[in-house]
Amino acid sequence: MSPPDVRPDLAALIGAALGRPVSVDERLAVATSGGPDSLALLSLAAAAFPGRVTALTVDHRLRAAAAAEAAGVAAQCAARAIPHQTLVREGPGFDSNVQARARAARYELLGDWCVQHRHALLLTAHHADDQAETLLMRLGRASASGGLAGIRAARPLRADQPSGVMLVRPLLGCRKAALSAIAAAAGWQLVDDPANHDTRHDRTQARALLAANPALDAAALAASAAHLAADAQALAWAADLAWAGRVRETDGRLAIDAGGLPAALVQRLLARAVETLALETLAGRPVRGSDIARLAARLGDGFSGTLAGVVARPGTIWQLSVTQPPQKGGKRPQNAA
């Protein structure tokens, strides 16, 4: 955690997240909404990597004021000699699941710009308070350990496409108050997104819960998420070994020998198998941990199950294959679960 009067060493934090120092020829993009967190990150990045940072603001076209807010951020960046680009999402608005769909559109725009302009690192200003909110939200959804690990410090921006862009969250150990102090000291004029106060959103509710309950320490919750992330990394390593020894592919089918394995490893193998076979159906998205847990339970009880267009059959060795397309009249073949 960084107290408000201490400026984080951003280069060191990025290096810790990546597991290597930032290369001298790497250029960095900073997702800059105009809020205090992203403006603090931009100030730190511009100071740590002069001449190598570009601020990117996304206008989702969801609010009338968004264009003027983006223009205000651009003007402030120009006054500080920081390159800035506004990325505008085209197309109709979202009629459901607005925050998730806006997030997906935002990362797509940011990723495309980074690829086109050869910026290898995309930084976002997620911090310890965000991490604590995420942990609470995922606890409420009965997430498995991977989900409870929360926001990762670094990952490839597009797991399904080798774009070469790394998404880095170097401020996960910093508190929001510290970042607000940095933005204020730098003289930025801040943007306040009304969505941050909309109580219909799960994150807003989690934020209110933290504010109303001092016993729920955001820094401690964020630290717990970091411990869970380390555990998830160890499980992923073990799952790779289990995949090599326990999974076989034949004629487009996968066979899993799950006998004697701990449940956490079984579920990871099953998730990887489903995601491998349903690559086109899922379009690179992971399957939900709760869905995998239910499928593993069915197989363990001797019942078949289907998930994301993949049918799984029980036995000493579990057999997974892509379901056949529906026949005329919408009926599926008799062997589909």
Layout of helices and strands, plus pairs?
Layout (H helix, E strand, L loop, with lengths): L9 H9 L9 E4 L4 H13 L4 E7 L6 H14 L4 E5 L9 H19 L4 E3 L4 H13 L4 H4 L5 E3 L9 E3 L7 H10 L16 H11 L5 H29 E4 L2 E4 L6 H15 L1 H4 L6 H12 L4 E3 L2 E4 L4 E5 L15
Parallel strand pairs: 1-2, 1-4, 2-3, 4-6
Antiparallel strand pairs: 5-6, 7-8, 8-11, 9-10, 10-11
Q: What is the total tally of β strands?
A: 11
Structural class: alpha/beta
Q: What CATH first level of the largest domain would be assigned?
A: Alpha Beta
Q: Per CATH, which architecture of the largest domain?
A: 3-Layer(aba) Sandwich
How many discrete structural domains?
2
**Arrangement of strands in the largest sheet:** 3-2-1-4-6-5
H/E topology pattern: HEHEHEHEHHEEHHHEEHHHEEE
- CATH-level-4 superfamily name of the largest domain: HUPs
- Average pLDDT works out at 89
Would you identify the regions where 5 or more consecutive residues have pLDDT less than 50?
Answer: 326-337
Q: Please describe the biggest sheet, giving its number of strands, its sense, and whether it closes into a barrel.
A: 6 strands, mixed
CATH topology of the largest domain: Rossmann fold
Number of helices: 12
What's the shape?
elongated
| Helicity level | 40-55%
Radius of gyration: 22 Å
From the N-terminal CA to the C-terminal CA, the straight-line distance is 50 Å
How much β-strand is present in the residues?
Answer: 5-15%
